[in-house]
Amino acid sequence: MPDTVTIVGAGLAGCEAAWQLVRRGVPVRLIEMKPLKYSPAHHHPGFAELVCSNSLKAEHLTNASGLLKAELRAMNSLILRCAEESRVPAGGALAVDREQFSARVTETLKSHPLVTLETGVVSELPEAPAIIATGPLTDPALTGAIQAATGANALNFFDAAAPIVTADSLDMDKVFRASRYGRGTDDYLNCPMTEDEYNAFYDALVGAELAELHDFEKKLVFEGCLAVEILASRGRQTLAFGPLKPVGLVDPRTGKEPYAVVQLRQENAQSTLYNLVGFQTRLKWGEQKRVFGMIPGLEHAEFARYGMMHRNTYLNGPKVLGANYAMKGNPRIRFAGQLTGVEGYMESTASGLVAAVGLYQALNGRPEPDFTGQTILGALARHVAAPTPNFQPMNANFGILDSLPFRVKGKKNRYEKLSERAIDTMNEVIKDYEL
Fold it and tell me: Which residue has the higher pLDDT, 185 or 349?
């Protein structure tokens, strides 16, 4: 028999990792602390508990979430199968009955002859081979052990992320590239505002609806971070003299300094994603699209990731992980789920799948599959390992995929081509690596 793999955590990522191993004949020791102990966000004793929305997002292939589902389906994902068997009406999205979904995942793994279940709180790194999938609220004792093994700067304990938009959704007739006072290279995109535009944006921002916080997050948010809407609440001119200060920037359309400027900073090496500098926010996602869409040049912006502020523990992936979710220096230990810096239900599932399949191949002396940057599976894995000065969690979006080698007119058509290429690539990877 092959080595038994220890998996810590029976959330979406841990359950998917367990399934991908046992279906290949690898025994799994699955350790879950529930119902002995619950994190502040968990309440249900079953596996794969959905703690926020019951929606797993869109299904169509002109949406990155739909493409990710197609890739997971090609790899016989347990989480996706159970979700489809537990679905409730939700238009073009895949939404589930939470309890039925959890029950299906739990029963599948509990009844599998190669799965040994243990209930307990893990406080040390398990012996390899192992996959750690303990989520963004990892128990403090294990967090300390991970930090000790990976380095003092390997973990982030608070997620204060600005929105990220796709480059090709910006109106470049309004946005201009420049550096302050013409010094250095033109590293930032600039969205200029007139006084009237700024005042309208300000009024919308301070009146926008905020997302709710868990009780255990409230103190952390207001002590550790400063959201753009909190800064704005200190006075109408606070933003104009703070992160939106236009000094040294000249709008080439007018030849004058704007009243205010929102700056966008490049987020990835391909220059396909940009984040809104200084726009950490707790606005609801719909409000972010409405309010930030008032910024000149962002009227039709596509949000690859909305801003967020919540208690979160996640690895500084570029320092700790390879592009297969393997721990640098000890590749027989892997991480999966939101702990790695992926964001979202299906993204967590994807990381568990990639971590498990890669580990299986390595344990059998085979080359690990390269899903490439042409698939969402591969692009997410590459994101968590790619060097970046300000690593932040990421969900599935077309902006993280390798660009097409040819130009496609129209966003929908381009997304269709990206999806077609991704599915072709998945089929090739499955065939080449005998997955």
Answer: 349
